[in-house]
Amino acid sequence: MEIYRNGSLINSQPVQPGLQALDTRVLPGGIYQVEVRLLEDGQETSRSEEFVYKPNSWRNPDSRWRYNLYLGQQTSLLSNWDAPHDDSLSAGVLTNYLLHPRAVLGLSLQQVDEAMQYGTSLDWDLLDRLKLYGNVYRTQNQGNGYDIQAIHSHDLGSLVLSHSRSWLETVSRPTHSQVVRYAEQSQTSLLFTRRLDNRSTATVRLSHSTGAADGFGVDLGWSYYGKLMGSDANWRLSLFDRPGTRSSGDERSRGINLALSMSLGGPGERIAASVGSRTSHDGGRDHNASLSYQRDVDLGALQSLGGTATVDRYGAGFGGNAQFQGQALQGDAYAQSSSYNGQVSGGLNLQSIVAVGEGKVAVTGQYLPHDAGLIVDVESDIDGLQLRADDQHGLSATLRPGRNLIPVGVYKSGYVQFDLEHDQHTAAVIQPTSFDYHLNRGAVAYRTLRVMRTVTVLGRLLDSQGQPMQGAQVVNHASRSVSEAGGHFAVEMSESQPTLEVRKGGTALCLLELDFKQLTREGDVLLAGDVACRPEGMAKAQDSVRESNT
């Protein structure tokens, strides 16, 4: 499955037979039109205009306008296709206006492929459980259309009613495609989802379409979550009866599919299997089965590996996939061979974000919203350090030593808190533990963060006469403390900088240098014993105090 926006491929992903949801987490936020192309055995068998609904949670009446402006030159990279619109101007303005705390109006004006595009959208929360999304659009010399969707949420599921219609001014076979574009296309669908109990859910989708696929369609689904051989397992049964297309020999596409996915003994290991029957390329029956294995790995930037084997009436096919994330780039890749004609197809999705602000530049491979950001330089003496940054508005990111980029909210004051990731038990101090910010959309600020491995030092502070020092400040890069009546103190100290400064009355009295090799250590606690503070310079936690008293 390939997803295009304004004629550019923005994502591709493998899909299975039956009713299923595409993974839109990697797609940009907002409400916009995309073209979905289905490729089977290396050949495009259908394409449809769809809308992505990922509206932003924006209900601030004090800031009613939000907008994006862009200007650039269109070009094609790594392509051997003839691109008649290369080096053409691309520009646009996209605005949102808060009509009401429950209603957002969107307007757009863009020039893409030397043609003007106009659009308007509405995001309206009619009731707490009823939402309405609508779009009207037109492309110069191409056509126009509209799309409307109503979503009702109830305690046990949801009900979604959708209708879309488009009119094309020219009827042609698109470049690089064997699919004919029709002058008028429409689709109406009703999707009902209901949770039957705590472990099972049923879905029913009724649809009627005109154009490339003409007629009524029915999709039924049932999923069950439970245990199998002591492991979490998910069963899914799908039945479908849809209008015929080129991939089914223009016969009605009917089929049934039973799938099982479950976790294995080790963490991050999953296996899936399916068996079913569907309409084949020539209109006959095609019985098929598949087996997949997926495993999370920790091999540098590589995070996950998987493989799939399928068998049907034409033979066997194989596929593989991988997910990766580096410091500057993240993405996924997949490849699969067709049992029908042996062709190999694949896809590669890459994403990288570059941020510039306050004279600093940062590049990250993490998936981040594109609202505003903080460039954070992390200094640390801890190998393999991972920090978690949490914004008060729900955004989060993982930080490592070096330069990082984290997302933050916009238009209002906020703060980001930092903590060790994955419940690390390393004794450490984070300085500072949080950052305040107040940024506009698209703004980038710069901050520095220091993380030090620490030990807790326990000891007794004595003056040059061997008498306990009371009320003296014991200061280190990591923290500070005050000695008690008997001179006893406890302070957290940087392990890489084992020095303590003693102050009293605002005056620095001495600098203590601790030698770890000559002190008793119990885990993250260092027993310094009696430590003498001598004004002439350094003092070490040894037996010097005892020697001076003898």
Residue-averaged pLDDT, rounded?
Answer: 82
Number of strands: 40
Question: What distance separates the N and C termini?
Answer: 85 Å
Give me the number of helical elements. Answer: 1
DSSP helix fraction: under 10%
Shape: elongated
Describe the biggest sheet?
A: 18 strands, antiparallel
Low-confidence stretches: 538-550
Number of domains: 4
What is the structural class? mainly beta
Radius of gyration equals 31 Å
Would you kindly provide a written description of the structure presented here, covering whatever features stand out?
This protein is an all-beta fold. The protein has four domains: 1-212, no CATH class; 215-341; 353-452, Immunoglobulin-like (Sandwich), CATH 2.60.40.2610; 454-549, Sandwich (Immunoglobulin-like), CATH 2.60.40. It has an 18-stranded antiparallel beta sheet, with no helix packed on it. It starts with a strand and ends with a helix. Residues 538-550 have low confidence and may be disordered.
Q: What are the defining features of this structure?
A:
550 residues; 4 domains; 1 helix
